Amino acid sequence: MKLTLAIAAAFATVALAGPAFAGPGEDLAAKEKCNKCHTDKDTKKGPAWKSVAEKYKGKADAADKIFLQLKNGGKVGDEDDHKKVVASDAEIKALVQVVLSSK
Ligand code: HEC
Known about the structure:
By secondary structure, this protein is mostly helical. It has helices at 2-16, 24-31, 49-56, 62-72, 89-100; strands at residues 74-76, 79-82. Strand 1 (74-76) and strand 2 (79-82) form a beta hairpin. Helix 2 (24-31) packs across helix 5 and helix 4 (62-72) packs across helix 5. Bound molecules: heme C. Heme C (HEC) binds next to helix 3, helix 4, strand 2 and helix 5.
């Protein structure tokens, strides 16, 4: 129930943000400026999310692992101080799905 409300709230926020509707995950990525270091296809400062999705393909704990990395920030691979995402768990989970569904 709580999750449903959070998702509804996330969608409402996106709807209010205007016509560029993408989804709560894409919306959070834009808000958090992940694109400063990541794109879906090309390596910038950080790896392309496509390559992250490939790296975690078939791993059952992938979504949980990335969720915790984003929620806690700090050390991720060679990045000592990865960006920490401050958002509801439901929004962060939506963002994880954006990463893992990148191709
Ligand atoms: C200041 C640059 C920077 C920003 C901003 C940034 N990242 Fe990263 N990110 C990195 C770097 C560098 C790595 C690679 C660390 C490594 O694997 O050595 C990384 C790695 C990752 C990984 C791969 C983790 C893994 O286990 O392989 C994911 C997923 C990720 N970032 C998601 C995000 C998301 C989502 C955002 C926005 C909320 C974000 N990043 C913002 C620099 C950044």
